[in-house]
Design brief:
The chain is an alpha+beta fold. It has a five-stranded antiparallel β-sheet. Strands 11-12-13-14 form a four-stranded antiparallel β-sheet, with helices on both faces. The radius of gyration is 18 Å and the shape is globular.
Length: 262
């Protein structure tokens, strides 16, 4: 298989190059390159964002942690700003995959790919973050639309993600030992606007767990989370775990996440 390769020199340059129907944007390449090797993707052209320093970095502003889309998982985990403001987010980033994945994979690439077992979508949805692109801002509740599907339009490029700083937040995942993806992962968050709970790995797409949110809004405790029961209907069954198993894991991990949050 052959394809053309272009390293973008600006976001505008990347957007122009990505306008072709058979063009793929490559960030860290941790998912896309694997898909190409397996014959699951066959782009005619790749537009590489790795040289765009304007899409990297972390800053704290107006009660928000703003992270550039090309910031690696390792850099998010090591960021003093993230560790102080949202330690659960730093913890999540620091346990994605292995060192190679953390040093190559990026926040924006993970969100654009929206793997059903990826960790970052749970943090973005759980914290009610805002995804900024070269065209608009998208609320987390509207961003994740299905299996490997998002609200992004063809050629649209994520430039940054803004995370509200919560009162408390916690993250726990039961990882698949080989891939280190989330067999089930749960992100819990409490802020002035209420409680949010996001679950990844359990279904075809990350989702908010309204029953857990209601229980934790009444009582922020591990016990309250672990009393909630989930139906296995609509949850994933595969060689790693049944839908029933995943349904049982969700409240257990939610309780542990609440304990981690304090």
């Amino acid at each position: 298989m052959s394809f053309t390769y272009q390293q973008a020199t600006s976001v505008a340059d990347a957007a122009k190059a990505a306008a072709g129907m058979d063009t793929k944007i490559i960030a860290g390449g941790q998912s896309l390159l694997g898909a190409i090797k397996l014959g699951l993707a066959a782009p005619e052209s790749l537009v590489d964002l790795s040289a765009l320093q304007e899409l990297r970095g972390v800053r704290l502003t107006a009660g928000m942690i703003v992270i550039g889309a090309m910031t690696t998982h390792a850099d998010v985990a090591a960021s003093a700003e993230v560790q102080r403001a949202i330690p659960a987010l730093a913890d999540l980033a620091g346990h994605i995959g292995d060192r190679q994945v953390r040093n190559r994979g990026t926040l924006g690439g993970s969100l654009a790919n929206n793997d059903p077992a990826a960790c970052y979508p749970a943090a973005v949805l759980g914290l009610g973050a805002t995804i900024t692109t070269d065209r608009r801002s998208i609320a987390a509740d509207s961003f994740f639309t299905g299996l490997y599907e998002t609200a992004l339009q063809p050629g649209e490029i994520i430039t940054s993600v803004s995370f509200p700083v919560p009162d408390k937040a916690g993250w726990q995942k039961f990882r698949q030992p080989a891939s280190r993806f989330s067999l089930v992962g749960v992100f819990v968050c409490r802020m002035d606007t209420g409680v949010r709970v996001a679950v990844t790995g359990a279904a075809a797409c990350v989702f908010r767990a309204s029953k857990l949110e209601a229980a934790l809004a009444q009582e922020w405790s591990a016990a309250a989370a672990q009393k909630v029961t989930f139906s296995p209907e609509g949850l994933n069954t595969d060689l790693h775990g049944s839908a029933d198993y995943r349904a049982a894991l969700i409240p257990v991990l939610a309780g542990r996440a609440v304990t981690a949050a304090g």
